[in-house]
Specification:
single chain, 164 residues, alpha+beta, 5-stranded mixed β-sheet, 6 helices, binds iron/sulfur cluster
Length: 164
């Protein structure tokens, strides 16, 4: 089963995607992930009543506004914005597949006082099917994809695994 984490990691690092899929979960050890979650909880606390957690079993979304049909994702920094956008697009895609149509996404960066709207188009739906096929191919590989050093590595939860 492909999750939103698979989609995010596919856009960040195929090695990370493979390790995550094989059950090597390091995210809880990551200060960056912990801080991101805290920002999500603390930001816009005055608007908290608007948002509900949506848990469909195969999909859990922290902030869903059923009246406005809006999914919100809060991030610490826009440095990895392309992966954040892909994550929200995947939420919208899965919701649509579950029969919940017309949902829009909003990606918020409270520290930068910035936000952007995320929507689905036919082109993105097609892209997502391509991402899913590639993810299936990568996670089925017998060997962990080779280490390709990138700026993101220094904040990655798998840093110790890759560089010790
Ligand atoms: S430390 Fe770098 S190479 Fe290793 S999993 Fe993370 S992003 Fe990928």
């Amino acid at each position: 089963m492909i999750s939103a984490s698979h989609i995010t990691y596919y856009h960040l690092c195929h090695r990370k995607l493979w390790l995550h899929h094989r059950g090597m979960r390091q995210e809880d050890n990551s200060a960056a992930v912990g801080e991101g979650k805290l920002i999500g909880k603390q930001s816009y606390a005055h608007r908290a009543s608007r948002w509900r957690e949506l848990n469909l079993g195969f999909l859990k979304i922290d902030h869903f506004d059923p009246r406005e049909k809006l999914v919100r994702e809060v991030k610490k920094s826009p440095k990895l914005e392309h992966a954040h956008v892909a994550q929200v697009q995947y939420y919208l895609y899965l919701l649509e597949k579950a029969g919940i149509d017309g949902v829009q996404g909003i990606l918020e960066y409270p520290k930068q006082r910035r936000s952007r709207t995320v929507t689905l188009t036919d082109e993105i739906r097609q892209d997502i099917q391509g991402w899913e096929a590639e993810i299936e191919r990568i996670v089925k590989q017998d060997h962990c994809p080779a280490l390709v050093k990138k700026a993101y590595c220094q904040n990655c939860a798998y840093r110790d695994f890759c560089f010790v």
